[in-house]
Amino acid sequence: MARALTRRLIFGLIAVIGVITLAFVLEFVVPGDPAKAIAPRANSSAVLANIRAQLHLNQPLIVQFADYFGNLLRGNLGTSYVQHQSVTSLIGPRLLTTGVLALAGVIAEVLIGGALGILATLYGRVRALVGAINLTLLAVPIFVLGLLLLLVFGFRLGIAPVTGGAGAAQLALPALTLGLIGAPWYAQIVADQMQDSLASSYVRTAVSKGLSDSYILRRHVLRNVLSPAVTMIGLDLGSYLSGVVTVEVVFVWPGIGLLAVNALHDLDRPIVMGTVIVGAVAVVFFNLVADVARMFIDPRTREEV
Amino acid sequence: MTREGSGGSSLTASTTGLAGEPPRGPALEISGLNVRYGSVRAVVDASLKVEAGQVVALIGETGSGKTSLALGAARLLPRSAAVSGLVTIAGRDVSGMSAIEFRAIRAQLVGCIAQDAMAALNPVVPVGRQVGEVFAVHAGMDRRQAAEAAVAALAQVEIRRPDAVARLYPHQLSGGMRQRVMIAMAIALSPPLIVADEPTTALDVSTQAEILGLVGDLRARMRSGILWITHDMGVVAELADWAAVMYAGQIVETGQVEQIFDAPAHPYTLGLLQTRRDLRSGPVGAPLFQIRGSPPAPGEEPAGCPFRPRCPRATQVCADVNPALEPVGTTAGWPGAGHRAACHHSGTWS
Questions:
Q1: For A215, nearest residue in chain B (alpha carbons)
Q2: Where among B240, B274, B289 does a domain terminate?
């Protein structure tokens, strides 16, 4: 078990380094001059050259990368070109707000999706209805759903704030948006797993032992449903933490996604790199957490190499 | 292994295992059992009796309805199956009970052993807990007591180091061990009836022999009646007292195992035995005996005897009338009264 985890950790590290390298190179090939973005009104080429020299932009790519990587190992993500603040101090609070949204979103999608999946499995009459709901939610683009919720709950009913920000009241709609968009996947996986489990031989054994339906659901079915759901939760947490850009833009939720979009706009390379690194680490980390959680839930995965 | 008489009534068991409650009547009595899945009739008007302490083998090929019959009697079929008929377990009419009523006492009445123990055990629950929950739910034990009872139950089925095994998960056990765990669960509350659905089919030969030996011991100790589903005539010969042969959802022959083996009255039974004899003692290189043709497809119900298209002795009457299960070997004083077959020609050729 420890060996398998170490292996995954090493692969994760390699993946993170790969992502950093790729992002760095990509940023370099993207057209646009950061110096011009920093000083849009500078008309002398001497000023621009000066800025480039200050930012070491005139050095070869390999040297820039080595510098960047060396700083990274010391925990230094550099300084924003535009905001003149260290990237870590800019990303830190954003990571927290995005983390709150990601967690709320995952909880919402697990609750909504889980409920839909369980209903569809246990009550044949609502199965078609749940299927229709799933299909609708899958077909709606995330920004349309976000705007729709904002329109209905914010403007029409006036029960949700329409001004952006990272308050508790502002959390509800973006979390609900994430929840509704993610719910069909969970509904599907829960329904599939539950149907398999209910038709399984071990549930028949449980019935033959005279156990009640609710006991069988809790003790024998649920654990078998949980394992694949946990893997999906890990994937979602990782990808949401790397920035739920659309949702953050629609609801003006001051998270990493919003930060990244603005930084891309400004050609603020240190911030873009910082958000990429946070995203990569989040994905790797939560995948690992999901693996560990699965090992606790399903003993068969403990012995996999 | 000892061989008991047909009725099992001559058995003197040291313990009844029923918590002081003597078994009343036969372990299982089925009469007029029908099972259908939609328009497909899986079991047609089957009647069968399993006495206490007796092993009754239910023989038939895949699709003959033997599993439907056994699971129908134990009320373990999915809701899509329509089951009708009278089922009595240890004197209690279970077919008339509500689902809730039956659930409360089912583990006391009937234990079930599945064919594939790997699939029949929950992969994510330690086996000790799976055995223990029977005690927790039905014997009113708390967690610790149930765990202890589970270890004792595992010891009963001759699992070495039962306390360590109890903590393991099914995939960590060998096939034979898993089947022992299944048996431990089935006999946990010493039920008067055990239904075993081909429990040795998935095992290798030596493990199979161990499990058969274990079941033989348990039967002698507990006096439970055992309904043993199989298509293996060797297992029948070794373990069973009584046999019932199924074909196309009907019981076509039933009797003492000796009667069935020595004087099969139904051509289908004869065919099954012939296959086995060829395997054991036929000349090397000679073609194996084979029952020609194949059984009717599910839902297909030809008029007359269902075996007629494959039967070497079929006559016109076989095409017209489906024969009823009737006594054969009417020789006076024949000790094995009860040998019956559903064949128009059973008296004329064997």
A1: B137
A2: B240
At B330 the pLDDT is: 57
Q: Are residues B19 and B163 in the same domain?
A: yes
Q: At what angle do helices A269-297 and A256-266 cross, to 10 degrees?
A: 150
Asked if residue B271 and residue B221 are part of one domain, the reply reads no
* B167 in reach of chain A (CB within 8 A): no
> Are B222 and B296 in a shared domain?
no
CB contact under 8 A, A209 and B76: no
B285 and B160 in a common domain: no
Residues B126 and B21 in one domain: yes
Tens of pLDDT along B125-183? 999 999 999 999 988 899 999 999 999 999 999 999 999 999 999 999 999 999 999 99
- Judge whether B57 lies within some domain: yes
**Closest to A211 (Cβ–Cβ): which among B111, B114, B137?**
B137
Same domain, B333 and B217: no
In chain B, how many domains are there?
2
Task: Determine the structural domain holding residue B329 and report its residue range.
Answer: 264-341
Q: Domains in chain A, ordered, with CATH?
A: 100-253 (1.10.3720.10)
Coil/strand/helix, residue B286: coil
The CA angle B13-B19-B22, to the nearest 5 degrees, is 55
Q: How confident is the model at residue B96 (pLDDT cuts 50, 70, 90)?
A: confident
Average pLDDT for chain B: 85
- Residue-wise pLDDT for A91-124, tens only, equals 999 999 999 999 999 999 999 999 999 999 998 8
> Does residue B229 belong to any structural domain of this protein?
yes
Name the residue of chain B whose CA is nearest to A196's CA: B119
Question: What six digits make up the tokens of B313?
Answer: 């002795």
- Could you tell me the CATH number of the domain that includes residue B190? 3.40.50.300
Express each pLDDT in B4-24 by its tens digit.
333 333 333 333 334 445 546
3-state secondary structure chain A: CHHHHHHHHHHHHHHHHHHHHHHHHHHHHCCCCHHHHHCCCCCCHHHHHHHHHHCCCCCCHHHHHHHHHHHHHCCCCCECCCCCCEHHHHHHHHHHHHHHHHHHHHHHHHHHHHHHHHHHHHCHHHHHHHHHHHHHHHHCCHHHHHHHHHHHHHHHCCCCCCCCCCCHHHHHHHHHHHHHHHHHHHHHHHHHHHHHHHCCHHHHHHHHCCCCHHHHHHHHHHHHHHHHHHHHHHHHHHHHHCCCHHHHHHCCCCCHHHHHHHHHHHCCHHHHHHHHHHHHHHHHHHHHHHHHHHHHHCHHHHHCC
Q: Is residue B43 domain-resident?
A: yes
- Shared domain check, B183 and B46: yes
B104 touches chain A (CB under 8 A): yes
pTM: 0.80
> Measured between beta carbons, which residues in chain A are less than 8 angstroms from residue B106?
208, 210
Q: Is residue B59, in this structure, part of any structural domain at all?
A: yes
CA dist A2 and B334 (Å) reads: 70
Interface test with A, best of B116, B124, B178 (most A CBs within 10 A): B124
* B227 in the same domain as B104: yes
| Partner-chain residue, chosen from A204, A209, A298, that has the shortest CB–CB distance to B133 | A209
**Last residue of one domain, picked from the residues B240, B274, B298:** B240
